[in-house]
Specification:
single chain; 73 residues; mainly alpha
């Protein structure tokens, strides 16, 4: 059985993987990043993921409501 696509989780995962890779590159000395860049990327990515999740939920709820109304009426 397939599960529904959740774009908010995809965005959160990509943001955290990117932050982790940047932190790893900074820790090994290959890149010199300001300390606040990884924090800003993480917070921004999680905020974008939350907004995307809320929009996705609202759209799916609206579609589900319209389908149930058409079945009732």
């Amino acid at each position: 059985m397939r599960h529904e696509f959740q774009p908010g989780r995809l965005i959160a995962g990509l943001a955290l993987i990117t932050a982790g890779v940047l932190y790893l590159l900074d820790a090994t000395g290959r890149v010199d990043l300001p300390w606040f860049l990884v924090i800003a990327l993480t917070v921004g990515g999680l905020t974008l993921a939350a907004l995307t999740g809320m929009i996705t939920y609202a759209l799916r709820r609206d579609r589900r409501d319209r389908i149930s109304e058409s079945r009732d009426g």
